[in-house]
Amino acid sequence: MSDDPDKTALRAIARERRRAFVQSIDPLAHRLAFKAIPSPLARRLTEAQTVALYMGLDDEAPAQRFAAPLQAMGKVIALPRVIDRLGTMDFLAWLPEDRLLPGLYGTHHPEPSGPPVAPDVIIAPLLGFDRTMNRLGQGGGYYDRAFARFPDALRVGLAWSVQEHDVLPADPWDLPLDIILTEVELIEGPDA
């Protein structure tokens, strides 16, 4: 996957916008954001057995805060493990009390205690999104490849509201999200 110059510029703008927002948000509002799973999303998770989260880096929306509510719902929680710099990633089962190992690009993943798991829901980080459900990621293609490997998994983007763009460029391999969840709203795609 080659990177589009427009996407490279958008990523820089999106990172700065997200950083400024997170630095300016009220600390209490930040601590409370993403602590509970909204009812419309919880209903969509009823049949799911395995939900893939991620450990938020820097100023990413903190998906790890969903771990406790997901455990209470009886879900298996998984975290991504970056395998190589070519875009290969799998998902490993994780309990919040488990120790995490350092991975590539500042990521952390569970210690492998069994084979990788197949998520029914993939909650993904992003730099930007638009109302047509396009997702602007970091550019490595890890989540696009994961979405393609698990085509039946519900694709949920987690973001701060400031990460919304009017229109994002999309390449043929960019798979749209089904749901986008921000600290203020849940957006469902037409096929969700």
From TrEMBL:
GO molecular function, a single term: metal ion binding
Names of required cofactors: Mg(2+)
Keywords from the UniProt entry: ATP-binding, Ligase, Magnesium, Metal-binding, Nucleotide-binding
Pfam families: 5-FTHF_cyc-lig
Catalyzed chemical reaction(s): (6S)-5-formyl-5,6,7,8-tetrahydrofolate + ATP = (6R)-5,10-methenyltetrahydrofolate + ADP + phosphate
GO biological process: folic acid-containing compound biosynthetic process; tetrahydrofolate interconversion
Species assigned in the record: Sphingobium vermicomposti
Protein name: 5-formyltetrahydrofolate cyclo-ligase
PANTHER family noted in UniProt: 5-FORMYLTETRAHYDROFOLATE CYCLO-LIGASE, ATPASE INHIBITOR/5-FORMYLTETRAHYDROFOLATE CYCLO-LIGASE
Gene3D superfamilies per UniProt: NagB/RpiA/CoA transferase-like
Family: Belongs to the 5-formyltetrahydrofolate cyclo-ligase family.
